[in-house]
Amino acid sequence: MRRRLKLSRGRIRRYVDRALLTLPIRFREAADNVMVVVESQPTQKDRAGSRRAVRAFEGALIRQDPLVGIYRGIPLSERAGYQLVTPDVIAIFRKPLLRIARSRRDANEEVRLTVLHEFGHFLGLSEREVEHL
Question: Which of 3, 118, 126, 131 lies in disulfide reach of 90, CB 3.0 to 4.6 Å?
Answer without folding.
Answer: 118
